[in-house]
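re: ur question from earlier - yeah i can do the single chain one, its not a big deal. heres the input i used so u can compare w yours
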Amino acid sequence: MVKTGDVLNMADGWKEVFERSRVVPPPSQTVRLALDNHFTQSHCFQLSLSRLAAAHLPQSKEMSGGGQDVTHQLRVTLFDRNHQRFFGKTWRSPPQRMKNNKISLNEVLYFHTSLLLPSVVMVLELVSLSSRPDGSRPALGRGFAVLELFTNRPVAQAADQVRRLNLHHGSPRSLLHPLLKDKVDYGNLLKTIDGAHFDCVVKKHPALNPAMHLLPENVLVSGNENIPGLATSPTGDALLRPQLLKMLPFTLNRLTISLQPSLEKFESQLLHLINADCHNTKQPGPESTPRTVIIQERRLHVGVHNGWCFLDKPHMVVLEPLASGSRGRSDSASKQSTLGKDSSALSTLPQTLGLRKSLELRLTNHHALAIVFQLEYVFSAPIGRETMLSATSVPRAAFLQCLRWGIWCPFQEPADWKGEEIQLVLRGGAEPNPHGVMVYSTEMSAKTQSPAPLSAPGSAQDTMKFRLSSSLERTASSPKASLRTKQEDVLRHRRSPLSPSRGQKSIPPASPPESPQGPGLSLSQLAATSRYPTISHSSSALPWQQSFPSLLHPSLLASAHQLSHVAFSGVSNIAHMEMDLQREGDVSQDEGDQLQELPFTPVHAPVITLGMNVPSSCSISSKCSLAHLYSAGFPDILDSAGLAAEVLDPTEHVPFDLQREESDPFQGNLLVFQFLAFTRTPVADVGPDWPENIYFTFQFYRFPPVTSQQLKLLTGDKVQQKASGLVPCVLASINRDGTVNSGPPGLQVQFRVDRAFLKPGEKRWFLRYLALHTMHIDIWDSDSLLLIGSTAVELKYMLRQGKSGVQALHELEVLTTDYVGEDALLTSADAGRQPALSPMTVHTIVRGRLHIRTGNIGCPVDPRRRRVADLMASHSNIITPRKVIGGFKGGSLSSRNILRLNARLEMDGACNLNEPDGGRRKLNCMAAVHRRESKEEAKVTGWTKEPLLAGQLYHLKPSERHNKAEGIANMLSQAITTQHLLYANLGSAEYMEFVLKNPFNVPQTVSIHSDDPELSAITNTEEWRYFKARAKTLTPQVENMFRSEEGAPGPRVYLRPKESIHIPLKYQSFLCDHTMALQGPSFQPTGKGSQAAKKNLSNIVAAKTIKVTFKAEDGKPIAIFQVNVEPTPHVVDQTFRLYHPELCFLKKAIRLPPWNDPTVGDPDVRTHISVRCSDPNIICQTRMLAPGEPRDVYLKVPGSPSPNIKMFFVMVFTDKWMAAPAQIWQLYVHFLERVDLSCVTGQQSCQSVVLRGKQAVRKVKCFSSHPQEIKVDPQGVFVLPPAAVQELQLKLQPWRAGSRFLYVNAVDVNNRRLVTAWLLCLNVHRPVLSKAFEMCVPVGGGRGSSRKITYTNPYTSHRSFLLRTDHPDLLQFKEEKFQISGGESYTIGLRFAPSQSPGSVEILVYVNNLQEKTEETFCVKVNYY
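and the output i got, formated as tokens:
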């Protein structure tokens, strides 16, 4: 038995939470008013307190004294101004000091309430705390503010914007003054403190809805409060995105309660005290009227409490008296006994109260979670005169009284209670309890005269015994027993003692409401004199011998009808929870419960952004290798004076001074990238000469992407022989005919950045790009077109800092990733379990080292060279329409223009406008006017349709004259059209303000129409304010200027006569052209030598023309704003390449780096991150998490056929309104044909794939990513005819077990283009071992060790065998092929290489036949000591 001891000592954790979470209930009138307004559902809210400004707080005597430690605290409480009552719980902030008359609160509060009434407000009080010598800290009110939460439309809450609350003089207790009762506005009665205000934001917080049951209503809490049931958050705010702890089902059974000194004496004394109290109370009626109080029901409330509130409505069960030592029900005498009379004549006396059945509870593992028990008795007293004939013939009133209560925390101590009986001490008396009711005290009753002694302090205590077990274990233990128990319960309820006697008709019971907790009965329901009588447990008569009240006595015919069409109570108003919820044979068919989502986190390996893991650039080459590198004859990087540029050390810190860069006399920059050499790294899967030819792809700043030509890796024979380590291979360009270029070695790519290239104000951004970014470089095998790896070079070493030229030599690691899974076989024992995901281990492999030299040469600016900015319009955000004085471009029909036109037409033999010839002559003249006025436009656009236009006008019919009106309207519209040239980048928002004037003398409501959704008006006031501050415009801003209506083509704005306003407009495009060059190296142009590289067209926003029309109320335009969008390339910050099977969705996550908003002073403030994708068919999103949590960008990319490559951009924004992307990522998804293979290590497997020809004849060769494990037949170059089908044999012989990915490319050798690509998904298993050996080899043994293994040919014929191993670097065979006759033995000679470090390794030896099928496998464990 587990004894819990005293309840307060047992539940210290729960008590601590309970004592500080006491709640004052709201006024009952307010609750009823909310119910009358149908506000029954509670809503969750979030209150963000940013700061308090208090410039002129009144000084007190305590504050004026110097040397005192004075801090300030904010207190927040809910207040009902209609009834002038505070309710809920006062929240107190941590004490803070005031700095510069400001207090930075940065607190977030949460609460939920159903009192969505305008009378409910929030009171915020500022108090000062001063330390006294005695250690006390008295609080002095410094002012308060009132925050209105709900308007007359309670559901429509305040917008998510900062609200400023003025601070008032005095204390919040002034709100209790009678003059303020029923006042809606306190502004006229409260005096405001000048310059003192709060800044706060109130908004709905639906994320709190799942955790609403863990908190009581009207309680303000912060995210760092201890709330049992919530998982802790690493950020400290557990309520921002609450995560609930898992609830597990438990079963509570074998519950008994022992009351001291005995149940009979306890209840007798209890009834004696109550009857004495009723006798002393003056009641109307004759004094001699006897009034007997009886016990009607013994009830127990069981609930789960977390210190704040009950997690669910407590269970209400009915207890029954049990005989001593009995766990079941007592006999009939115990149930009929009257406790107010002598019961000594009964043979068996009830000693305890017990629960017949078990109780289901849902608990979570938290030390402060408690199970609360409350023992409650239902008493019944007569209302009118009680006669001696029957105590139940008069109406009776019921009332409730709590007698004992207790709590037990199952998870506070070690869980040693499982399977044991738990004994809990019950308490009574006037002390706080979770139910908030008065509890019967035994100390009070000890002072009165009683026939029997009661339990007193120091004597025996009232206890409860029960068992608690997991429902999952109980359900899985005996399902048949559970079914048998349910059947016995049905039979027991069918022969319930509440049924009538023989002489009366049986009343069929009706099912109670289907609730696992039973009906929650209120005191008014128990006390009501309804049509249904109550049974007194203290009556001397049996239940079936009690008579109905005379006023409710039905006839025999009406009795069955009335009692079968009401909520059944079994002639009792209290329904038992133990009764069956369904009648026998009544099985309801429902649609099933809603499935609950399990807390499942998808298993994925997020791609880490390169900025978090820059490849190492430190030099590890030997002196001999570096000497060979410098003697190769690479071109020098010289400055404008012909001197060598200053060399910078890439391992040292580079200072960056922006002012010094901007004041550089050399305003031009010639940036040089020299690709010098590549150092091969030995890889087990490929040969020592791989790769032979390579090429590079990269993109610098916003220049077009660069794809280099083929570069051959050259190594001198002399250096190769002398060098003991890795030697860098010098890069040399390859001509189109395959020969090596005779020019200088290496590859040099130059970019010129000067005033002609940069836009106004762009130089600062370019310098920031060099200082903070790295340039991503992909290295490819130009023969197989397989990706060797990627690297990144830091660009900060290209900052000149006033020097004429700088250069730096980098040695970069070329990295690639390999996904390998463990070999996990599914056995028969796992067949019925949930399939587990086999995690993939991501290995980073170094494929080589790239030697690259970067430089920056300062260039003087040519004053004769005009810059691009001088040719474009002024980059102003304010666009003012031009004034129209007379005429307009496109054809003005003024008299002066007509006379000029007549003179020219007479010379050309054309007609005169003044001659009285009708339509044809006028139409010809209009065509001539159009040709004359639009002559310049025709030169630009190349339009040569003037004769066709004249012919069309000549053949006009009267029904087609409206075309002439349209043409004239188009020309007239040019007079009110204002054009603006806009240079746009991908994802960047361009802000403009168009000055719109009402030309009429009457007010107009102007509607704004845009023919492209990428150019729209900014209707949000906060967004407008943000862009104005970003563009630094000083124009006026009007609050709530726009009006939007459903179905309207655009927003509307009201203008007074001749009024001019600024219309904020924003252009932002997330779409761009995704066309890209074919995969493969470029070819060297003639005469360019090593300086050449192919620069593809940049993927930029398409050029377009957008018109914004401002229409008056009559639908006619009053102004037209035409925006000519000129695209400019954008900066690519990082590049990712992903490989995926064709025609299926790619789902990938990219891990974002930890970003902090530099504009926010507090680093703990969460950065708002949003993402957009340039392809609308790709799903790109990120989830809002708590501060400090890693955040991923989730991508879902639709598949394409092989070997297509899908390229797109992802824009990452860190500001709320997405003004400009903080980073732009370029992603390449390579789609390949998927081939699934299952094989065994060391054994060759074959798989056939089909290669289909295209439209032309091609010479094709196949390459694999692991030539030592995959061989393709045919191996050489073969001809693929058009529309032909070529079968390829993939011979796979892997040496490592697990899940792996390999690649095979079919390449057009003439054009160096990819024809088809295959993705091989391998599931490689370990072989069955025949024998195992173990040996020891000394470390540094010099020549190694030799061993022998005897192998016997199991066949009767002569056979040839091959020897293979998975560690050829550690083991060599004396003979790799041997022949042996049937039944004979052969000695296999093994030679183990020495090791320089201790350890152990398992080496597998395969004995294969000539078809590479494994005959035997030996395992040799080598221990190096």
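Residues 295 and 379 are 5 Å apart (CA to CA). not sure if urs matches, ping me
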